Amino acid sequence: MNHFSTQAPQVEAATLPGQPFVAYREGSLHLEKVALSALAQQHGTPLFVYSKAAMLSALAAYQRGFAGRDAQICYAMKANSSLGVLQVFAQAGCGFDIVSGGELERVLAAGGKAEKIIFSGVGKTRAEMRQALAAGIGCFNVESEAELDVLSDIALAMALQAPVSIRVNPNVDPKTHPYISTGLKGNKFGVAHEDALRIYRHAASLKGLQVVGIDCHIGSQITETTPYLDAMDRVLDLVASIEAAGIALAHIDFGGGLGINYNNDTPPEADALWRQLLAKLDARGHSGKKLMIEPGRSLVGNAGVCLTEVLYLKPGEQKNFCIIDAAMNDLPRPAMYQAFHAIVPVVPGSQAPAASYDVVGPVCESGDWIGRDRQLAVSAGDVLAVLSAGAYCMSMASNYNTRGRAAEVLVDGGQAHLIRRRESAADQMRHEQLV
Ligand code: PLP
User: Among 59, 215, 373, 377, who pairs with 350 as Cys (CB 3.0-4.6 Å)?
Assistant: First the structure.
């Protein structure tokens, strides 16, 4: 028995919910003014395609929220670190939140300014600290007492003072997937709220450091306002006690984490969220402080799609499988977090019978699925678009099964620019040698 049904294929509406720059026109899904069917034909699949307008529109929501304020938006580039994407944010005046020396090199290569870089992460190496100090980055977000000591020594050896902010763990539940909640007591990130004042005093005593701020980041794909408001309260309590101890804080870095609409999720808009957070900040007498934020997903997540071709339809006893040419190495979020990505045909109106499919890739793992129980009317050779694929997809892509990483295109109005060519097997073997 197979599970194909004969119900009529669903023709998608012209625009897709939560995806203002993705729409069906003239028989094909478009990103801005570019037909995705044409891009798939030109560049092959799997192919990531990003909309510059979608990124700038997401950024504009934050900029509206911070109008008239001293605020610095540092794009958390781990969400998508492709040079062409970084260039968009660098040209828009953004700073960057980095977590490695490699990310630092990428920002500089894309035209980002060193003084607008903040360096987060629990495991910065000495070499990375030296590299970042030599580049003149804006701030180190330090995540432990041990790291403070090492950073101070390294800065002193370079006859410098490292600007630091300490990441505090406000112990607030962001109500998101456990793998992407970071501000709880059991997480490896930041220092405990109750230890923060003591650690700030220690930092202020170290000759190689200059304390400039305080930092927190409670998690990712947060769709509620309350965890942010609670974390803000906890951080402002600390600001009061740290400043009462005579340690001035020039900025408050409130991290990133704002969610996007993957599957009828309803996160607050960035400007609405910040209206509430700024009201709290003002009410507690901190309107003069510089604000920093580190958004990643909310700037790029819904700016990207992944195009993939249907290789085979495989009816099964319990399930039908739609086997595509993208896999968990390209789109790791479903395998890692059971995450949902909408999957739609690039050219709708297929005459194929609609059926329920598990959409899976060619990788030799049962965890290699991209969507489960999806109602699709498809045939082999059709191109599908995996939506909301701008964040934590390409930047997490791997070469598992010696699969080359996908190509990437940046769309700007009616123009499409290849920003990364498809990786070949030769590219992958470049650093290996036979003995
Ligand atoms: N800042 C830090 C320290 C992070 O760990 C992360 C991601 O986990 C971000 C910013 C970006 O988060 P998001 O992409 O959810 O905005």
Answer: 377
